[in-house]
Amino acid sequence: MLVCLYTDEVVRSVLESMRADWRPGLEVIDTTTGDPGAAHAMAADLEVCGVSYQEAPVSGSSAQARDGLATVFVGGTSEAFERQSTLWPMLGARVLHCGPCGNASRLKLITNLVLGLNRLALAEGLAYAEAMGVEGTVALEAMKGSMAYSRAMDAKGTKMLQRDYTPQARLSQHLKDLRLILESARKAGLDLPLGSLHARLLESAESAGMGDLDNSAVMELLRLRTDSPKT
């Protein structure tokens, strides 16, 4: 059984509604990006009934996932991972077995933290270029050819410049992940100042009605700030 839902709370609700169908030998693969602790707890609950549970969050845009170019992080037993050896290439170009349940979710959140900050840095750089009177396409190409380069420039640079916010991954979805990241960091006693700032900016963008747009729409929030009257 392959599960792909918005939050781990929804996953648990759906699986609980199917409890009557839990039986030894059933295998559940959950691609949802969720809380590492929830994945660990779900695996333990299902194991009591002889059900195998693997978390397999996917790193990549919807286009990359559709084209089979995404990266898949898998958490679960080695035996369960090997049993699905023919499935993994269908989900992504790169598949990493990360150890027990919980580890894959941790790696997905780490990756999303850095990816989101790369995207935010790109948006700020392009907004700065516009404010300085530099043509956006020129600035983007200059950054791509420098040590400032990140793959966010390939995926989101043109979208930001053309104000094409057709969703590949929604802004509200990344805000959901950021809240998971910040909460897990809080539990570990770690402060994430850049992640916290990013969350506040995305909350402002969501409040401005951008939540269902592509996550690159954070560029519009920075443009609004740039266009604000100077005092």
Number of strands: 6
Distance between the termini: 58 Å
Number of helical regions? 11
Write the CATH architecture name of the largest domain: Orthogonal Bundle
| Overall tally of domains | 2
Reported by name, the CATH topology of the largest domain is N-(1-d-carboxylethyl)-l-norvaline Dehydrogenase, domain 2
What does this protein look like?
There is one protein chain. The chain has about 230 residues and is mainly alpha-helical. The protein has two domains: about 1-100, Rossmann fold (3-Layer(aba) Sandwich), CATH 3.40.50.720; about 105-225, N-(1-d-carboxylethyl)-l-norvaline Dehydrogenase, domain 2, CATH 1.10.1040. About 60% of the residues lie in helices and about 10% in strands. The protein contains eleven helices and six strands. The protein has helices at about 10-15, 35-50, 60-65, 80-85, 90, 105-130, 135-145, 150-160, 170-185, 195-210, 220-225, and strands spanning about 1-5, 25-30, 50-55, 60, 70-75, 95. The strands form two sheets. The protein has a three-stranded parallel beta sheet with strand order 1-2-3, covered by helices on one side. A three-stranded mixed beta sheet has the order 4-5-6. β1 (about 1-5), α1 (about 10-15) and β2 (about 25-30) form a beta-alpha-beta unit. The longest helix has 29 residues, at about 105-130. The mean pLDDT is about 90.
